[in-house]
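Human: Cast an eye over this sequence-structure pair and say how the chain folds.
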Amino acid sequence: MKKSKLAVKVHEGKIAELAKKTDHKTLVTWALDCAERVLPYFESKYPKDDRPRVAIETGRAWAKTGVFRMAVIRKASLDSHSAARDVKDDDIARSAARSAGQAVATAHVSTHALAAAVYAATAVRDATLPVNANAAITKEREWQYQYLIKLGKRCQTS
């Protein structure tokens, strides 16, 4: 059986529903954390290419300061996606770079957070032996869901 392009099925509805109820800044932080978990997959293959790392750092700067410049966010996102396009024959690294690009784009549109999480789960799936792929996806998506709950609660009490 051919694997699907993206790992979206596990907890898809639960995460989407929770994301709708979550404030924008929390979603950005969550998306960046999801992307950063898989960033080593990219950086280990392309240690001299810092575009996905810069995307994550750009998103963190927005989350910290609240200063939004569309040109900066857009460039960081597009650069990370360009890094993904430059990847040859490595779905894992490509998904990790796409996750970072989607994560920083969440500063502009909150629904990009869901794509960042899906690309992160896809990187995890592709980094796992096929026999263990479903368990790896389930574990990653469960972590994403529980972590979004935790971040949301932390923001409500701050």
